[in-house]
Records
---
Amino acid sequence: MSAVILNVALIIVAVVFAAAALLATYRIVHGPGILDRMIASDMLMTTLICILGVEMVVNRHTTLMPVMIGLALTGFLSSVAVARYVSKRRDPK
């Protein structure tokens, strides 16, 4: 019985993550501004990190933990870089 519940839960999680990834990709492509695209990029990165976390829980291993940390660091640094770029781009008055 628990295997059936686990399979149903995995299908639901996969659908939710796929929807989140598709919506984030849509916002990256059609975003009106650079900040909207950056937020969508962060959302896509977070979704990928969550997918890797679910995979580690299901298969009971921790080998992808360095990849998750690297993705989180990349997302953080890219957000900081875009924020600095946008703040310098605006004209001070």
---
Amino acid sequence: MGLIFSTIGIDIMNISEREKNKFHIIDIKGKINRLKDSVNLKSVFNALLVKGIRNIALNLKNVTYLDSGALNVIIYTFNSLAKEKGTLVLIAPNDYVRDVLEVVGLNKIVKIYSTEEDFENDKETG
């Protein structure tokens, strides 16, 4: 019982945003494992779409876990941007997150960069 209580509140999802070249980067930290997290993330994406932002990079470097709700939001965002001739890329997922993305086949439709440096050095994103 003590172990369960000691982990409550750790790795809660936090989101920050920044601009880099022609991309709006969303930095996520923690776990994306609650319905509330997916709803919040989707609302961030929707707000960017309303503002006319069409190139979004999702920095997953500090994401420790994502669930099916998070995957649905990523797919939703990819599809929404594709309809507007926009781009979604993913940056620096850890091995676990990359494995999840590959199991569901997201790596076949969304460009995944191993590091932010790789993202910055790509002629299409830089």
---
Amino acid sequence: MATATKSSSKPSAAAVRSSTKHSAASEPSLRFYHSKALRQKTDLVLTALEAHPGHKNHGEDISDLVAELIDAGMDYYFLKALKEADVGFVAEQSARLGMSGAVKLVSSVSRKFITRMDHTQLLVVSTHIRALAAE
């Protein structure tokens, strides 16, 4: 059985940014809207990562941001629809509790990976988030 060898060269942030823009623009997509405060926080965290590569807490900051984006996305995609469908208080609260557990699980898993990333890998995540947030 053949095994694939892992290339030791990492793509540059510019190459990742270029490929992300191309693929994101050419594929169908779903977007969600979040608060202006979360958009400002997103810009602040990503700009800090790009401007200050030596800062030690970028992984934690990106993890916190990703957790907030996950929460906002789950709320927008799932809970907002239930509220608009007027499924009732008990059903809505049950769904909210279930989504809360899912958000905690996904956020916990993503945090474990993001906090271990080096600066180059965090820049790839940053580029991806910026591509998703394109206006």
